[in-house]
Amino acid sequence: MPANDNNDLAVQVAELRSDVRHVQSDVTDIKGEIRLVNQRLDATTQRLDAMNQRLDGTNHRVDLLGLQLKEQSERVDERFKKVDQQFDKVDQQFDKVDQQFEKVDRQFARVDERFEKLQGRVDEVKDSLASAKLWALGLYVALAGSLLYVLARGFKWI
Domain range spanning residue 78? Predict the structure, then answer.
């Protein structure tokens, strides 16, 4: 075996090692990015849980308003002489309830927008992971081909 072939083989093995280290560092970077995405998703889930708690408080307030409306309707029955005044008060309170429902509707619209944005981000992450898988698969195929080439050269088949 000529000395030149040994030097070429050593250079090729060194290049392969370098390529493998590069692939390993890329995989490590990808794992780190996935961890960051998971942390962001957890933080978003916590924010959504907090928002759900706020909405539960709003539902409780709406229930309390419903109880107040029942009490006022009983007062209307007891004081029939003041029906007009009581109906005015009830109309005002219904306006307040309508305003609160509008606020709740706006909050639900905001939640829907955030879910759509979050879904878009998740889709982008899925797409980037899919392309990273294809890229890694290509590297593995190239590595296998170069390994077969090195074996063929080592056994002098080529």
Answer: 3-154
The total of structural domains in the chain comes to 1
Q: What is the pLDDT of residues 37-81, one digit of tens each?
A: 999 989 999 999 998 888 888 888 888 888 888 888 777 677 666
Which two three-digit tokens encode residue 130?
């899919």
Q: Which among 102, 135, 126 has a CA at the least distance from the CA of 26?
A: 135
pTM for the model: 0.32
Q: Please, are residues 157 and 44 in contact by the beta-carbon 8 Å criterion?
A: no
Going 29 to 34 to 40 to 43, the CA torsion angle's sign is: negative
Residue 23 contacts by C-beta under 8 Å, 6 or more apart in sequence? Answer: 136, 139, 143
